Amino acid sequence: MTEHITLLKPDDWHVHLRDGEALKAVVPYTAAQFGRAIVMPNLRPPITTTEQALAYKSRILAAVPAGMQFEPLMTLYLTDNTPPDEIARAKAAGIVALKLYPAGATTNSDAGVTDIRKTYKTLEAMQRHGLLLLIHGEVTDSDIDLFDREAVFIERTMAPLLKDFPALKIVFEHITTKEAAQFVATAHGNIAATVTAHHLLYNRNAIFTGGAGSGLRPHYYCLPVLKREIHRQALMDAVASGSPRFFLGTDSAPHASQMKEASVCGAGCFTAMSAMELYAEAFDGAGALQHLEAFASKNGPAFYGLPAHTQTVQLKREAFALPEAVPFGAADLKPLRGGETLAWRLHS
Ligand code: NCD
Ligand code: ZN
Questions:
Q1: Residue 279 has pLDDT above 90, yes or no
Q2: Ligand 1 in contact with 42 (CB < 6 A)?
Q3: Fewer CB within 10 Å of terminal CB in the chain, N or C?
């Protein structure tokens, strides 16, 4: 049995850091595990301009504990009206990507894109300037079953987009299905995907098997929602295939526990406190620990055109008791698996 592994310092290519007191509460967790992170722009109001992104970046940096090295990689929220000339400004300011949320797909996405064709001039500018397009790949039609929304998005939007923008780098974010894994592995074009730890560890039963076995567990509810076991297996096979097109993105999405444990539960799993520990558990469970370094530390930088880190970190098979809740401004935040003891521990 492998007792420890050494890997190049990892990055998180998809995280939600929120703002204000919530931001101050969660930034230290991500900065403790990762060298860099792609910070999602779905604040209220969303980060749609270069100026807003730079101001947000300085608030994030101010929340990094002294002595920690952490680089937030900033993104803009793509809307129907993002002006094409915002892209040159964004590029010059070091912003690396824009996030496409179909309007209404998830938390704070009401300002999202209503029709992809409305954004084509802006996508052309992104292709020209080398900014990446990060996509929440789900259709939002109420007549499409929630569990089918990712697969339908591939046919309707993702495949045509790749044809229309062959040089645009596209990240299919937090993929959850065998259809998406297969599409990303085989598509012609500049496409890659992030995969969360929770979609590698759990199928949809996890949402419905709390307490004595049939209780609803709101902390396992996220979007895109957990799928059937065959999909979890396909994701695990994809990340363990050695394909450079798959890399780490936690989609850690903190919500106050009062928002999760409510009659309407916010979507999102908070995993930043134990991100690498959860990925280690998933890869170990599949006998694929030898593929974790490429997934966590090499494939992401390569796709984004950035150097990998040179420092290393260690994961040890060592008991790690995760607190049930931590402060989140004036509220509480409950990590996924809070109150449990995990089998791996990150030493950075
Ligand atoms: C995210 C959030 O809370 O911001 N929620 C989630 O379930 N993943 C939004 C998102 O990435 O879909
Ligand atoms: Zn997300």
A1: yes
A2: yes
A3: N
Q: How many angstroms separate the alpha carbon of residue 310 from the centre of ligand 2?
A: 27
Residue type present at position 102: P
**Residue tagged 């530390």 (tokens):** 297
The answer, yes or no, to whether any atom of ligand 1 lies below 6 A from the CB of 223, is yes
- Residue 109: which pLDDT band, with cuts at 50, 70 and 90? confident
What tokens does 6 get?
């050494």
Say which CATH architecture domain 4-347 belongs to. Alpha-Beta Barrel (3.20)
Cα-Cα-Cα-Cα torsion 287, 289, 294, 299, nearest 10 degrees, comes to 60
Closest ligand to C-alpha of residue 223 is: 1
Using one digit for the tens of pLDDT, what is the confidence trace for 242-264?
999 999 999 999 999 999 999 99
Provide the strand spans (E) within the chain: 4-8, 12-15, 36-39, 71-77, 97-100, 132-135, 170-172, 191-195, 246-248, 312-321, 326-328, 331-333, 341-347
Residue 106 predicted with pLDDT over 90: no
Q: Smallest Cα–Cα separation from 74: which of 66, 83, 89?
A: 89
